[in-house]
Design brief:
Length: about 200
């Protein structure tokens, strides 16, 4: 049986659970989902699909809620048929595109909760001769290194892993130094940054 030393501070990094006395360092996933969806709307997209991770995990649930709120704030009706639960891999993105394109009223954009899903979606759309972003916009989440180096660079939300790591270390050290005091958990939430690239940029400034 695994024993946890209560004298050593626990810190959730990126993903978290609400456990009393445990600190966390995350980004605002709701804001990230909202920002990327708002961007797609501003590019003229009217039917935006969302390829969502497991909503039992707070990060994916929050991204979904941000997506949904952006639609509502822009008077775009939420359509549950445009939300598909997917794994975070390339093949899942390809399969999701096939399902979406078979709909009676298919989408003109996709917001993916993973950059790997976004990559798969782009590959599948290209294989069907669909022009990105002129006919279809795609955006991901995490700002994986490959997203900016591809010929068709991918719009994505940066999770600020370096900043998140520094903040987690800072919180850890503060709690270690205050070892003799009553510990109060810290909930640090960083602001997400949207990197707009070719995969969604229809309207050039």
């Amino acid at each position: 049986e695994r024993v946890i030393n209560k004298n050593v501070p626990l810190i959730f990094f990126d993903r978290k659970k609400d456990i009393k006395g445990v600190s966390s360092v995350t980004i605002n996933d709701f804001e990230g989902g909202y920002k990327v969806t708002q961007h797609l709307i501003e590019q003229g997209c009217k039917k935006i699909a969302h390829l969502c991770g497991d909503k039992k995990l707070e990060i994916y649930s929050d991204r979904f809620e941000g997506y949904k709120q952006a639609l509502l704030d822009n008077n775009i009706k939420f359509d549950e048929k445009l939300v598909l639960l997917t794994k975070s891999d390339i093949d899942a993105g390809k399969k999701a595109v096939d399902k979406l394109l078979k709909l009676k009223n298919p989408p003109d954009a996709i917001f993916c909760s993973s950059d790997y899903v976004a990559l798969g979606a782009i590959q599948q759309l290209k294989s069907k001769g669909i022009k990105i972003p002129d006919e279809f916009c795609v955006a991901g989440f995490s700002n994986e290194p490959f997203t900016k180096f591809m010929e068709l660079s991918i719009t994505s939300v940066d999770q600020s892993p370096l900043e998140m790591g520094k903040m987690a270390a800072k919180v850890f050290l503060e709690q270690v130094q205050d070892a003799g005091k009553v510990k109060i958990e810290k909930k640090v939430v960083l602001a997400p940054e949207l990197h707009i690239r070719k995969s969604s940029l229809k309207k050039k400034k």
